[in-house]
Amino acid sequence: MIIPYDSLEPDLLERMLEEIVTRDGTDYGAAEKPTSEKINAAINGLKQGRSVLLWDDQTESASLVSKEYAQKLGF
After folding, report:
1. What is this structure's pTM?
2. pLDDT tens, N- to C-terminus, the chain (75 residues)
3. Tally: H helices and E strands in the chain
4. How far, in Å, CA of 5 to CA of 28, rounded?
5. What's the N-to-C CA distance of the chain in angstroms?
6. Alpha-carbon torsion angle 28, 31, 32, 38, nearest 10
7. What is the 3-state secondary structure (H, E, C) of 36-63?
8. N or C: which end of the chain has fewer CB within 10 A?
């Protein structure tokens, strides 16, 4: 299920994105970026329609994915 990011309170959205961008296995290239920069980039991607938040009932967690990937999954 896609979570409309603009339906979330700003504080909740920021906490959700912080959890996502700081997960083990997230890779941002050769140089690590500050968490605030990762969150801002995620918010920009959502606002520009490049990314969406997906909720997974099985894992009871949200993920940030590209719009194209979400479409391939059937969302």
Report:
1. 0.85
2. 999 999 999 999 999 999 999 987 666 667 778 899 999 999 999 999 999 999 999 999 999 999 999 999 999
3. 3, 3
4. 22
5. 7
6. -50
7. HHHHHHHHHHHHCCCEEEEEECCCCEEE
8. N
